[in-house]
Design brief:
The structure is a homodimer. By secondary structure, the first copy, chain A, is an alpha/beta fold. Chain A has a single domain, classed as Nucleotidyltransferase, domain 5 (2-Layer Sandwich), CATH 3.30.420.10. Chain A has helices at residues 41-59, 75-94, 104-112, 119-130, 138-163, and strands spanning 3-9, 15-23, 26-35, 63-67, 99-102. A 5-stranded mixed β-sheet of chain A has the order 3-2-1-4-5, with helices on both faces. In chain A, helix 1 (41-59) packs parallel to helix 2 (75-94). The longest helix of chain A has 26 residues, at 138-163. Chain A is globular and about 45 Å long. The interface between A and B is medium-sized, with 28 and 28 residues.
Chain lengths: 164, 164
């Protein structure tokens, strides 16, 4: 069995998640989805946490990858995004899954070779590289792309170690 | 037994908490403290969540009060504060404790009668009103002040209902 990587793209209304497996130089899609909880903020946070807890318990990933955030429209949207992101990081940390952050540019670069690719281009490359289902929601493909970015970083690192 | 109110003042490095009891027009201090978790962000979030979970299970409050945030130095500090705040709200929501938000001005007003009082003035009034311990950390007194603000709002509401 290869290394399993779980990616997440948090948001208080839609949180994407995706899992892939790395075996040697082969990357395989396992699962992905979008959590769209209902109700007021506190209930939505419980929805995100409960569903992520369940997926992490099911797939038992070896690593958890998430996008680093530098930009937000304003203080309030940064705060609300922070709520969802904190809850997602908590889910992984409580299950003792090592946590890795990559910038949006690194994630796009890993999927397409271009740091400024569109979300649709990223999704299309994931279909080719991972055999991911066609035209999934962009929150799910963004989450898978974060996982792929860690997979490539890990793969390159292993290759560099083997070459020593 | 009166109504128990749990207040929290979240932060990724120091999270204050405090509990008080309202019985008729009497407000009584029960407990307060500061959670100062160590390690990287993900570990600190687990520290905050675990300790809040434990205090909420111990004191079984009827309400959870937290300061509304409108202001942060920059996007990054709003994000990090959002992480701690999201985790705190999650703890309360998972234990199904109703959640109330008050502005900093409302909270200061409730404790001191002045919306622009200093943190030290708020703390001093809590010592007088609640019999809270002297010179506790300001994170703890801010958390207690949020609880007091909800206690007063609730008290006024009850009084208004009784007067009908």
């Amino acid at each position: 069995m290869g290394l399993r990587i779980f990616g997440v793209d948090p948001g208080s209304n839609h949180t994407g998640w995706g899992v892939l497996e790395v075996s040697g130089s082969k990357f395989t899609y396992l699962a992905a989805g979008t959590i769209s909880p209902k109700g007021e903020l506190s209930q939505r946070l419980v929805g995100i946490a409960d569903e992520l807890d369940a997926h992490l318990a099911t797939y038992k990933p070896d690593a958890f990858a998430i996008e680093k955030v530098f930009y937000a429209k304003n203080i309030n949207s940064a705060l609300v995004l922070g709520h969802a992101r904190g809850v997602a990081i908590l889910s992984a940390a409580r299950q003792k899954i090592p946590f890795f952050e990559y910038s949006a540019t690194q994630i796009k670069q890993a999927a397409t070779g271009r740091g400024r690719a569109s979300k649709e281009q990223v999704r299309q490359m994931l279909e080719m590289i991972l055999g991911a289902p066609k035209k999934q929601p962009l929150d799910s493909s963004d989450a898978l792309a974060a996982a792929l970015c860690h997979a490539q970083a890990h793969h390159v690192q292993n290759w560099a170690q083997d070459a020593r």
